[in-house]
Predict the structure.
Amino acid sequence: MKINYIKTIILFLLLSILLGIPLSNFTEKTSLAYAVRLMQLLRFGSPIPHKRDMNGVPLIRYPNLGNKYYYNPVYVGIYGLYYYDKWQKNGENNYFLDLYLIYNLYPPKYSNNIKWQKDFISCANWFVENIQIKIWNNVKYGVYYYNFSWPKYELNSPWISGMAQALAMQVLVRAWMATGNDVYRNTADLARNAFYVPVDYGGVTYMLSDDEWWFAEYAAPKAKRPYVLNGMEHALIALFEYASYTNDNNSKILFLKGLNVLEKKIKNYTAPNMLWTLYDLDGTVANLKYHEINVNLTRRLYALTSNEKLSIYEKWQNFNTPFFIREFIYQIPNEIDMIALLLNIFAIYSLFIIYIIYIILVNRSKNDN
């Protein structure tokens, strides 16, 4: 009987692997979220990669950067907009915040609305206090530095981000409208002015022609130029909002220059060999989170502009290439992908083991009788 049970266990392991692969297509969102927590727990002893400082401003721990937390201006903006939406109870940024909540946002749970307001203002104040003022070609502008390196795009500390500039503008203009304090509006103007400065001179813009400007999510003079879609679209949405809320013609012109190049490049973000989208034009396949963000941000821009080139989101939202094919066949899987797949295999294998234990107990009960 022992040999039979050993053979059965081995058979169930093989079946678990075979069944875990298709199962991962249906559990991807849940398994990826748990995979992040599990990896953090195994590596650092704590499953949550985010924490908040005494004012409620987030700090992020990255697995490839060791057990240290960093301020990430993009996440200060994301949390700030989340706090604002909770304070105002309007959900106006749900089109992308809902996706971060599934995968990697760890907000507090407040019942007191004043606490949401306080944390929102704290994020706005962080943008005021941490902006670095520069001058280029008589343009006074401000940027937010990343004080860690990011090897994937050859970014050495310090570097900046067009997406960070955009989210800062969105938080700051809401703080200005809510409080009437001009320091928020003035700081937002400085953050916006970084879009006038070429990447090679300390800004966030690739000036492809007089009327086609691309706003780089990852910006540094000697870094790669991957043309990341979601960062560009966040920048455009922020510029559109800022022009609308403040009647600022400069932001409107910047928006139109960016839209001109996006409408030409947007089709290139359809993956060439499968039904999915790309994260960047280096050919990085978007994971599920960023695929859905690509869809939702493009949908948002289409709603704002009615630009028919952006209706491509209607095609993207119907793409359904399975998880295993996307992450294990078309590219080399990362640690999170592998842990997510193993979680699915383990879940099925656990059911088989429970079944084996049940059979053993039943047989033992019969033998005792």
User: Anything to note?
Assistant: The beta strands are 50-52, 58-61, 69-70, 132-136, 139-143, 205-209, 212-215. The CA atoms of residues 169 and 323 lie 35 Å apart. The longest strand covers residues 132-136. The mean pLDDT is 93.
